[in-house]
Amino acid sequence: MLETIKNVICEFIDIDPDDITPESNLRTDIGLNSLDCVSLAQELENEYDIEIPNADLSKFKTVNDVIQFLEKKINRIYIIIKLKTPDEVFLQPSVFLLFSLIYIFKMYQ
After folding, report:
1. Within 13 Å, how many C-alpha atoms sit on residue 86's CB side?
2. How far apart are CA 43 and CA 8, in angstroms?
3. Contact (CB, 8 A) for 37 and 5
4. How many Cβ atoms from other residues are within 10 Å of residue 60's Cβ?
5. What is d(CA 46, CA 59) in angstroms, rounded to the nearest whole number?
6. pLDDT, tens digit, for every residue of 21-68?
7. Which of 28, 44, 66, 108 shows its CA 20 to 30 Å from the CA of 74?
Protein backbone atom coordinates (compact mmCIF):
# COMPACT_ATOMS: atom_id res chain seq x y z
CA MET A 1 0.00 0.00 0.00
CA LEU A 2 2.86 2.37 0.77
CA GLU A 3 4.31 1.77 -2.69
CA THR A 4 0.98 2.59 -4.33
CA ILE A 5 0.73 5.82 -2.37
CA LYS A 6 4.31 6.72 -3.27
CA ASN A 7 3.61 6.13 -6.97
CA VAL A 8 0.47 8.25 -6.89
CA ILE A 9 2.23 11.08 -5.07
CA CYS A 10 5.10 11.01 -7.57
CA GLU A 11 2.57 11.61 -10.37
CA PHE A 12 1.84 15.05 -8.89
CA ILE A 13 5.10 16.08 -7.26
CA ASP A 14 8.65 15.78 -8.51
CA ILE A 15 10.04 13.83 -5.56
CA ASP A 16 12.15 10.71 -5.16
CA PRO A 17 9.87 7.87 -3.95
CA ASP A 18 12.61 6.80 -1.52
CA ASP A 19 12.18 10.14 0.28
CA ILE A 20 8.56 9.26 1.12
CA THR A 21 8.14 7.40 4.39
CA PRO A 22 5.05 6.65 6.48
CA GLU A 23 6.06 9.52 8.77
CA SER A 24 6.35 12.04 5.91
CA ASN A 25 4.06 15.03 6.32
CA LEU A 26 1.99 15.44 3.14
CA ARG A 27 2.36 19.22 3.06
CA THR A 28 5.66 20.13 4.69
CA ASP A 29 7.84 17.11 3.82
CA ILE A 30 6.35 16.15 0.46
CA GLY A 31 5.01 19.52 -0.66
CA LEU A 32 1.43 18.61 -1.58
CA ASN A 33 -0.95 21.54 -1.82
CA SER A 34 -4.73 21.32 -1.40
CA LEU A 35 -5.34 20.49 -5.05
CA ASP A 36 -2.66 17.78 -4.96
CA CYS A 37 -4.35 16.24 -1.90
CA VAL A 38 -7.70 16.13 -3.71
CA SER A 39 -6.03 14.55 -6.74
CA LEU A 40 -4.29 12.03 -4.48
CA ALA A 41 -7.65 11.13 -2.94
CA GLN A 42 -9.26 10.70 -6.37
CA GLU A 43 -6.46 8.43 -7.55
CA LEU A 44 -6.68 6.32 -4.39
CA GLU A 45 -10.46 6.12 -4.73
CA ASN A 46 -9.99 4.77 -8.25
CA GLU A 47 -7.19 2.43 -7.24
CA TYR A 48 -9.01 0.88 -4.28
CA ASP A 49 -12.62 1.40 -5.44
CA ILE A 50 -13.58 3.32 -2.30
CA GLU A 51 -14.83 6.78 -1.38
CA ILE A 52 -12.78 9.23 0.64
CA PRO A 53 -15.06 11.91 2.14
CA ASN A 54 -13.72 15.46 2.26
CA ALA A 55 -14.04 15.43 6.05
CA ASP A 56 -11.59 12.51 6.21
CA LEU A 57 -9.32 14.00 3.57
CA SER A 58 -8.76 17.07 5.72
CA LYS A 59 -7.54 14.81 8.57
CA PHE A 60 -4.67 13.37 6.53
CA LYS A 61 -1.44 14.88 7.85
CA THR A 62 1.07 12.11 7.14
CA VAL A 63 1.39 9.24 4.69
CA ASN A 64 0.67 6.92 7.62
CA ASP A 65 -2.70 8.65 8.16
CA VAL A 66 -3.61 7.78 4.57
CA ILE A 67 -2.43 4.18 4.99
CA GLN A 68 -4.43 3.70 8.20
CA PHE A 69 -7.56 5.16 6.62
CA LEU A 70 -7.25 2.91 3.57
CA GLU A 71 -6.62 -0.19 5.68
CA LYS A 72 -9.70 0.50 7.83
CA LYS A 73 -11.87 1.27 4.81
CA ILE A 74 -10.74 -1.78 2.83
CA ASN A 75 -11.03 -4.11 5.84
CA ARG A 76 -14.50 -2.77 6.63
CA ILE A 77 -15.67 -3.46 3.07
CA TYR A 78 -14.15 -6.95 3.19
CA ILE A 79 -15.86 -7.75 6.50
CA ILE A 80 -19.24 -6.55 5.25
CA ILE A 81 -18.96 -8.68 2.11
CA LYS A 82 -17.60 -11.66 4.06
CA LEU A 83 -20.52 -11.66 6.49
CA LYS A 84 -23.11 -11.87 3.74
CA THR A 85 -24.15 -15.15 2.15
CA PRO A 86 -24.79 -15.03 -1.61
CA ASP A 87 -28.56 -15.02 -1.02
CA GLU A 88 -28.31 -12.18 1.50
CA VAL A 89 -26.22 -10.12 -0.90
CA PHE A 90 -28.63 -10.67 -3.79
CA LEU A 91 -31.61 -9.71 -1.65
CA GLN A 92 -30.13 -6.30 -0.90
CA PRO A 93 -32.22 -3.76 -2.87
CA SER A 94 -29.21 -2.02 -4.41
CA VAL A 95 -27.69 -5.29 -5.61
CA PHE A 96 -31.04 -6.48 -6.96
CA LEU A 97 -31.48 -3.19 -8.83
CA LEU A 98 -27.97 -3.41 -10.25
CA PHE A 99 -28.51 -6.94 -11.56
CA SER A 100 -31.89 -5.92 -12.98
CA LEU A 101 -30.33 -3.00 -14.85
CA ILE A 102 -27.55 -5.20 -16.20
CA TYR A 103 -30.12 -7.75 -17.39
CA ILE A 104 -32.22 -5.08 -19.11
CA PHE A 105 -29.15 -3.49 -20.68
CA LYS A 106 -28.00 -6.84 -22.11
CA MET A 107 -31.49 -7.54 -23.50
CA TYR A 108 -31.42 -4.38 -25.61
CA GLN A 109 -27.91 -4.65 -26.98
Report:
1. 0
2. 7
3. no
4. 21
5. 20
6. 999 999 999 999 988 889 989 999 888 888 898 888 889 999 999 999
7. 28
Phi and psi torsions of 62, nearest 5°: -120, 170
Percent over 90 (pLDDT), the chain: 26
- Domains located in the chain, CATH noted: 2-84 (1.10.1200.10)
How many angstroms separate the CA atoms of 24 and 63, rounded?
A: 6
Distances (CA, A) of 30 to 4, 21, 24, 104: 15, 10, 7, 48
Calculate ∠ Cα 103-106-109, nearest 5°.
Answer: 155
What are the counts of helices (DSSP H) followed by strands (DSSP E) for the chain? 6, 0
Of 109 and 26, the one with more pLDDT: 26
* Sequence-ordered list of residues with C-beta below 8 angstroms from that of 71, at least 6 positions apart, any chain: 1
